[in-house]
Amino acid sequence: MKKLKKVLLKAVPLWMVIVIILNSTMVMGVAQYYFLRQEIQRDLQELSKTTQSPEELTQILRQQVLPQNGYRTPLKWKDLGKKLVEAGAIDKKKYADIFVSEADGGDHMRYLDGSWEENMVINEKNSRFMVNTLWALGLANKSKVLNEGQMKTGENPTENFASTGGWTLGAKPVMEIYSSAEIIPLTSQQQDLVKKIAENVFRPCCGNSTAFPDCNHGMAALGYIEWAVYNGLPENQIYKDLLAFNTFWFPQNYVEMAVFFDKQGTKWKDINPQLALSRDYSSAQGAARIKQSVQSVPGLQNQGGGCGV
């Protein structure tokens, strides 16, 4: 044993042992530093993926509210456009003067002829065509909402509302178009369901529900509800579709709504459509309250829709 120690001491002097120990410590320290640095870099990369500036977050929400490819409804066009032309609710020449000159306008115009098995889609390019065509549908289709509701029972003459007096794209005087054609044959029970849903759907341009469709957006929403009820869509799907229409008709308001709910921890995809369309959120008063609460958020740009053709 003593001989072995002598051999080791001769083979590895004490100073060398000390150097080896120090070097080992330095190597371990450098290695720890390197791995720690790598871990920090990974954490920073992950953080950069989830942390954006308020402007970037607003843009992300805008893309969620207004998807680039638009929103596809479960309903098909069928021959709705053709029937609207036949009823005199739409004058094809007046329509062409507006929409053929727009991007993809000629493509929209085809829905006024024949029968189409394509689903209704709304996007930033065709939102004006959609609101006008559904406006004509809501205006022309025979309806309890139109015949028995506030459009008839209020103090103002029916022809003086924005949704009536403002319709200038028909082939007949507006009051000859108003609730005149059974384009969508609804039973009495279906008419009642249309009214029930319409009473729960608001738009940011006024304080009225779709059961009082005194503007183009309200009349357009009424037309879609009638078509959806006739086709047997579940109520939750109808609210989902109407919320999508509203987002493209009033983009600024619904981006602000998305920001409002996001601040409370609710993602846009998780918002209950019926809640979003209610008086508290989608009426002019509800929209004003939301705007007030998010006005300090950077990146919100003014962009909205009007109530004209």
Distance between the termini: 105 Å
Largest sheet: 2 strands, antiparallel
Please state the overall shape, judged from the principal axes of the Cα atoms: globular
- State the strand order across the main sheet: 1-2
Put simply, the count of helices is 18
Based on DSSP secondary structure assignment, what is the total number of beta strands? Answer: 2
Low-confidence stretches: 2-12, 14-22, 24-37, 39-51
Q: Work out the radius of gyration.
A: 32 Å
Structural class: mainly alpha
Approximately how much helix is present in the residues? Answer: 55-70%
Percentage of residues in strands: under 5%
Question: Can you write the helix and strand succession as a string?
Answer: HHHEHHHEHHHHHHHHHHHH
Average pLDDT, rounded to a whole number, is 85
Describe the model:
This protein has 309 residues and is mainly alpha-helical. It has a domain at 73-249. It is 59% helix and 5% strand. The chain has helices at 2-11, 14-50, 54-65, 80-86, 92-99, 105-109, 127-140, 144-148, 150-153, 162-165, 174-177, 188-198, 216-230, 235-249, 251-263, 273-276, 279-282, 284-294, and strands at 71-78, 116-122. The radius of gyration is 32 Å and the shape is globular.
Task: Summarize the entry for a quick read.
With 309 residues, the protein is mainly alpha-helical. It contains 18 helices and two strands.
Tell me the layout of helices and strands.
Elements: H1 2-11, H2 14-50, H3 54-65, E1 71-78, H4 80-86, H5 92-99, H6 105-109, E2 116-122, H7 127-140, H8 144-148, H9 150-153, H10 162-165, H11 174-177, H12 188-198, H13 216-230, H14 235-249, H15 251-263, H16 273-276, H17 279-282, H18 284-294
Antiparallel strand pairs: 1-2
Helix pairs in contact: 3-15, 7-13, 12-13, 13-14, 14-15, 15-18
